[in-house]
Amino acid sequence: MGVYENLSVKRIINAWGPMTIIGSARVRPEVIAAMAEAAASYVDLIELQRAAGQRIADMTGAEACYISGGCAAGLAIATAALMTGTDPAKIARLPDTSGMKGEVVIQRTHRNPYDHAIRQVGVQFVEIGNRLDTFPWELESAIGPNTAAVVYVYGARTMHEPLSLRETVDIAHARDVPVIVDAAAEVPPARNLQELTATGADIVVISGGKGLRGPQNSALLLTRQEIVEACILNGSPNHSLGRSMKITKEDMVGLVKAVEIYIALDHGAVTRGWAEEMAQVEAALQEIPGIRIVQEEARYSEGIPVARIVLDEKTIGHSAVDIAAQLAAGNPGIRVKQTADWFSINPQFLEPGEIQIIIERLRGVLAH
């Protein structure tokens, strides 16, 4: 009996995406092996942090890298580091921001539930723009003597909107203000490991437990060496704001291995494999009355094909919510992204053979 069966917890097929609530990405076996080896010895965690971070920096072309316990922790520690530097008095004072710059500028269209990670440091958000547009003059006007940083949330819904990341960096740097980029799910594409830092952004935060398929409780902060040192002082094992956001020796070693493997992949072949699986879904379901299949990209990143299945509820007799619930209720459960009118199948984290299970279940559910 497996560990989950022993706990009476049902296994899930992830046709949804890198969602933390279902365990995000499945960790690669090679990463698990590296983590197991790391668990067998004691090391100095700060020495390991510097060495593992530098190895990742060398592989990605960044000057330096800090490894955090997930992206939310990374955003919090990055914000704290830019506010305090290595000043022990300021580090001890947080989340009381007295005597330090305590404002972070963010575009209104970039606000999302994850920005609590930044606000918990004690900063105040200064919003710019409206729900459609942000203009350069708005960022220029919002930056003042109390501005600690500008935060840019880089993703499918923001990357093509004004104000661009490169424009944001140029405006902020002209006023000596650093830029933090929340790019949690933006690998793939692999080029983002280099291109986002190439914009000049001061800290780029990328999840280790999503597309990289490393430890879920990990993230890499691509940055500069002096910022890494400030992050170290603001994070565990030091007694500071980030003490509860622990990153373990196993996570650090596992993330190094995950980045090594990911960089060496044939990313074109991976993408073609995903497209082939989505073509299988369309071929298997297209003749079922009451559905329409749209091939599109995942809405959190670039280059990940998904099959969006749009339902005519009158013909099918069930809404997309009903269908998704029936898929989730099976054993194993199948989790998909869904709205009231459609649900989608995402191949990013499917294992060999799982697409056939999904197709069989879909045909059974939709036929009824």
Question: Summed up, what is this model?
Answer:
Helix content is 41%, strand content 17%.
Task: Describe the overall structure.
- The chain is of the alpha/beta class and 368 residues long.
- Helix content is 41%, strand content 17%.
- The strands form two sheets. It has a seven-stranded mixed beta sheet with strand order 2-8-7-6-5-3-4, sandwiched between helices.
- A hairpin with a 7-residue loop joins strand 9 (291-297) and strand 10.
- Helix 2 runs antiparallel to helix 11, helix 4 crosses helix 10 and helix 12 packs parallel to helix 15 (354-367).
- The radius of gyration is 22 Å and the shape is globular.
- The two termini are 33 Å apart.
- The model has no long low-confidence stretch (mean pLDDT 95).
